[in-house]
Amino acid sequence: MAGHRLVLLGFGNVGREFARLFLEQRRTLRREHGLDGEVVAIATARHGTVEDSGGIDLRKALRLAGGGKSLERCGEPIRAPLLEYIATAKADLVIELTPLRIAFKQPALDHIVAALRSGKHVITANKGPVVYHYRQLRDLARKMHVGFRYEGTVMDGAPVFNLLQETLRGAHVLSFEGILNSTSNLVLSEMEAGRSYEAGVAAARKLGLLEADPAMDVEGWDATVKACLLANVLMGGRLRPEDVPRQGISGLDGGKVRYVRAAGRRVRQVAKGWREARTVKASVSLEELTPDHPLFSIEGTSNALLVRTDMIKELLISERNPGLRQTAYAVYSDLIAIHQGRLNP
Ligand SMILES: NC(=O)c1ccc[n+]([C@@H]2O[C@H](COP(=O)([O-])OP(=O)(O)OC[C@H]3O[C@@H](n4cnc5c(N)ncnc54)[C@H](OP(=O)(O)O)[C@@H]3O)[C@@H](O)[C@H]2O)c1
């Protein structure tokens, strides 16, 4: 039975939920997939960076992290700079779950490159490095014969890349429209129901949905990064989020949202990708959807993506009320895929 040695970069909402899922499913992974593994290192920004070559006690790590304590009591502190550690670690798979940054240069990119260059598989739910460097990372992973998977970057555990890159081989994406930011959709739904913008944002925070920097969600950055990521990965685009028209929900008037609803329409933030001649374009805008629009019924934290391809005319992928478990599942399903030798979606 193959024993994977995992390094977790980031032990926040997603990293911890993955640890819970991994603990819960250990026996099932062995029985159904012949997959055995240990988390041998965990890195954080302010809560310690530790390793245990025999496997970190994840229950203890979760207890410490849950109490806001340093992880240093559940392993040997790693003193080497993180990039050096990643390159030399006795591990075969790195899971990158540090916060989203909208920048060409970013620590998460360096983490992933260090892992791939040293022959380690990489799984990430972090959109930042993928949106700016998809081709480079994909090509590096191929050259090193290791896995690079990123299902959790868009729509959590709902199959987007697995479906469009792996299952629907031979189909080409012509365009897409999606409701891709749970926080914005939740806040808009709360405003439709009569609550304030602030109450909606507080509800998103309570669910662990808000990015470390809330502007990522409410200023429309998260949806814009996802639109660019889909356009770059699925349509061969070369877009950067900062160059794409973007409209967030911050400062939106609740009265306007309720007025539109009373008139039978809905304000929704729609992320789009399309082709104009040979150029791939993307945008994120607030739109008034009519009841005949396929995205009209998407409420609360639900997400949906309408994809038009040259083979299957219109395909609607929708995910009802996802939570952290669904994001953790994306990482978990990527782990199984890599274990099975499906290195790239
Ligand atoms: N939350 C979601 O629902 C969701 C859904 C899909 C995708 N994602 C993506 O998943 C990633 C993680 O999200 P999250 O909600 O888990 O974030 P989070 O709760 O803010 O956790 C981030 C973790 O990364 C650590 N960290 C920050 N900078 C680091 C660095 N330079 N080196 C090592 N560790 C570092 C933090 O350390 P400290 O604990 O010391 O601060 C923390 O443990 C993000 O890229 C996000 O966009 C999140």
Please give a structural write-up.
This protein is of the alpha/beta class. It folds into 2 domains: about 1-155 and about 325-340, 3-Layer(aba) Sandwich (Rossmann fold); about 170-320, Dihydrodipicolinate Reductase, domain 2, CATH 3.30.360. The protein contains 12 helices and 12 strands. It has a 7-stranded mixed beta sheet, sandwiched between helices. The protein has a 5-stranded antiparallel beta sheet with strand order 10-9-8-11-12. A hairpin with a 4-residue loop joins β11 (about 305-310) and β12 (about 315-320). The longest helix is centred in the N-terminal third of the chain and has 21 residues, at about 15-35. The protein is globular. It starts with a strand and ends in a 6-residue tail after the last helix. NADP nicotinamide-adenine-dinucleotide phosphate binds near residues 46, 127 and 209.
